[in-house]
Design brief:
The protein has two domains: 90 residues, no CATH class; 223 residues, Rossmann fold (3-Layer(aba) Sandwich), CATH 3.40.50. The strands form four sheets. A seven-stranded mixed β-sheet has the order 8-7-6-9-10-14-13, sandwiched between helices. The chain has a three-stranded antiparallel β-sheet with strand order 1-2-3, with no helix packed on it. It has a two-stranded antiparallel ribbon with strand order 4-5. It is 28% helix and 20% strand. The chain starts with 5 loop residues before the first strand and ends in a 15-residue tail after the last strand. The radius of gyration is 30 Å and the shape is globular. It is of the alpha/beta class and 348 residues long.
């Protein structure tokens, strides 16, 4: 252990004259300091005529023209600890990047691929799809199923007539939000779950192969889909999200493609059971995207295309909720660790 580097005894002005003493050794600082403030390990010890600064990683220097009477410095070694103290009026604020700090990343020329289970699912992220389309991105919605069991507000039976209507509604919604013509994959609603393992699994595998081809063809910069919660816990939502995720994780992307899950923050839900079933802790939703009134209103116009699914009252309720909300869409990025590790107890 190094011996004491120095001892300083002086009266420091911090609004009041406060006697203090400081003794610096290796790894230990003892201070009696009153009415002083510190910011990010920076403290300046100010006297009337000079400033004494202790700095890490470099020799301990004293930058003084005239040493104040009563200040004795004995330098026996170099400092290996950082102490840069700031007091009183000299407090410096440290700016940190917050979620609301604007980041200048242009959407122009970028491609977003939004993959959802049913026609009308895209409304969940409609405001930010409209936002990025307005800002110059190409936004390609991919709808996996034909929605044939979503009879909703119609008297139609499940079948081709209803699926044709739902396809028209999807195209109408995309036009209002400024999106590319949606890709209609046309797979059966409910993904043949009622056919059991040997009906459902081969069907999903076919969908996954087709999704893989679409990712190659569309060449997106960003993919957005459902996470494990499925938004509403809907089985089709969850299966489609899992299928998109497997396609994404199955290979190293030729370019830096980002996958996001859209979700409802748990803090926005009051019922504890709802939080468990479809909420996502706010800590995980690290991407919060704001949108404009124009984006919101275009999404409401898109919603109104879905007359087979929503009554006038439910449309009004959804529109009111959008207008009274915080004007944000919340997403969770799917990230990989920065380094490989050989333990479960350390994740980078």
């Amino acid at each position: 252990m190094l011996g004491p580097m120095g001892r300083v005894a002086h009266t420091v002005r911090t609004g009041l004259s406060v006697p203090w003493s400081r003794s610096i050794g290796t790894g230990e600082v003892m201070t009696n300091w009153k009415k002083c403030c510190s910011t990010h390990n920076q403290i300046k010890m100010k006297t009337k005529q000079n400033t004494i600064i202790f700095t890490i990683g470099i020799p301990l220097f004293v930058n003084c023209r005239n040493l104040v009477k009563g200040v004795v410095l004995t330098l026996k070694s170099f400092a290996l600890i950082t102490l840069l103290y700031s007091c009183g009026e000299d407090k410096k604020e440290v700016k940190e990047l917050s979620a609301d700090t604007p980041v200048d990343v242009s959407a122009k020329g970028k491609t977003i691929m939004a993959v959802f289970a049913h026609p009308d699912d895209e409304i969940y992220v409609g405001p930010i799809m409209a936002k990025y389309a307005r800002e110059g991105a190409k936004v390609q919605v991919v709808t996996v199923t034909d929605g044939r069991y979503g009879t909703g507000q119609t008297d139609l039976k499940p079948g081709d007539e209803l699926t044709a209507l739902r396809n028209e509604e999807l195209n109408c919604a995309a036009r209002h939000m400024g999106l590319l013509k949606p890709i209609w994959m046309g797979y059966h609603d409910q993904l043949k779950l009622k056919d059991g393992f040997f009906g459902h699994v081969p069907y999903i595998q076919e969908i996954m192969r087709k999704l893989d081809s679409l990712v190659t063809d569309i060449d997106p910069d960003v993919i957005v889909t459902w996470g494990p919660d499925g938004g509403s816990n809907h089985m089709d939502h969850r299966i489609v999200g899992a299928s998109v995720t497997q396609v994404y994780l199955s290979k190293k992307q030729e370019k830096n493609v980002h996958l996001f899950y859209v979700a409802t923050p748990s803090s926005h839900l009051e019922d504890e059971d709802e939080k468990l079933l479809r909420g996502v802790s706010d800590d995980y939703l690290t991407t919060e995207i704001s949108y404009t009134e124009e984006d919101r209103e275009n999404t409401i116009l898109a919603l109104q295309c879905y007359k087979t699914q929503y009554s006038e009252d439910s449309m009004k309720h959804t529109a009111d909720r959008l207008r009274s909300g915080d004007q944000k869409v919340y997403l969770r990025p799917v990230l990989k660790a920065g380094t490989k590790t050989n333990t479960l107890f350390k994740v980078d």
